[in-house]
Structure formats: structure tokens, C-alpha cells
Amino acid sequence: MTKPIYVLNGPNLNRLGTREPDVYGRTTLAEVEVMCREAAAGHPIVFRQSNREYELIEWVHEAIDEAGGIIINPAAFTFTSMALMDALKMFPGPLVELHISNIHRREPIYHRSYISPVATAVIAGLGANGYPTAVRAMRELIAARPAQSAGA
Ligand code: CA2
Question: What is the mean pLDDT of residues 50-78?
């Protein structure tokens, strides 16, 4: 059975494409979801967004049992949430932290990610194209892993 790739999106990303187009572009989150499904080429995708830290943590717990890989744009929780970092640390598969903007070119408050130290890879600054890039990279990361035995 092919385990899905979970693509999780944090607070305010449901408003993508509606403001600050110079930083975040004009692509909406619904369009990003379509881009992810195209890049997945049939690999199942679970695509979700929440403004609640609790809900994102619950989805990471769900992914520990269900997902082959996690791509997460934690948005502002990147810089604040040790709880989300603790949950992601428990995920045994590949984890890609994703940002639309290059957070390292921005103000110093955007430079210290709680998530990067527990991520397999980080993608930042490719705009909305970072999402399909992450999905393609995730398919390769999953394919490169040895098959998991039942119960492992
Ligand atoms: O570049 C990214 O993807 C971010 O994760 C987006 C976060 C920001 O806090 C991170 O530093 C970088 C914020 C997203 C704010 O949501 C918006 C939604 C629509 C338009 C503008 C912002």
C-alpha cells in the first residue's frame, strides 16, 4: 500500500494570493494543492491547512501512523512552536520544511526556525513552485528508503 504524502500548511496560508503578492505571489492555496497533485503523478496526497497549532500537531500524530512523508509550511509556528517541533521529531520518515519566501533574506525574527533541526530538507524562496518541487523531492526520498516491515 502506498502511504500518502502529507502536505500541511500553517496559519494564514488560507489567505495566500490575496495580499503581499510581492513576498508571497498571487497563487492561491487551492491552486497550490492542484500543483502538488500534478507533481505527485498519482502518489496520494493529503493536503491540509489550519490556523490552529493544536490541529497541526494532531495531523502530525496522524501522519506518524499513516504518511510516507511530510511536507510542512509551518508559517509563523516555524519561529514559535516547540510543541510542533516535538511532534515532527517523532515522525520516522522524510520531512521537508517549506517556505514560499526566502526566510533568511528577511528580518532577523524570521531566521531562527524550530523546525529546521528536525527536518530532512528545507526549501525556501522558490515561491509557490516550492510546493511541487518539494513533492518531487519527497517522492525520491520515499523511493530511496528501504521498505518498512509490517509493524515497523
Ligand atoms: O514564506 C513562507 O511560506 C512563510 O512560511 C509564510 C509565513 C511567514 O510567517 C514565514 O516567515 C514564511 C506567513 C504566511 C502569512 O500568510 C499570508 C497569507 C497570504 C498573504 C500573505 C501572507
Answer: 98
- Among 6, 43, 99, 114, the one annotated catalytic: 99
pLDDT of residue 148: 65
Block residue for cell numbers 492561491: 28
Atom of ligand 1 nearest to the CA of 76: 9
State the pTM of this model.
0.95
* Strand 45-49 versus strand 69-73 pairing type: unpaired
Q: Which fold has domain 5-151?
A: Rossmann fold (3.40.50)
Sorted by sequence, the CB contacts under 8 Å of residue 80 that are 6+ apart come out as 114
- Ligand 1 atom with the shortest distance to the CA of 12: 16
Q: Confidence band (pLDDT; 50, 70, 90) for 110? A: confident
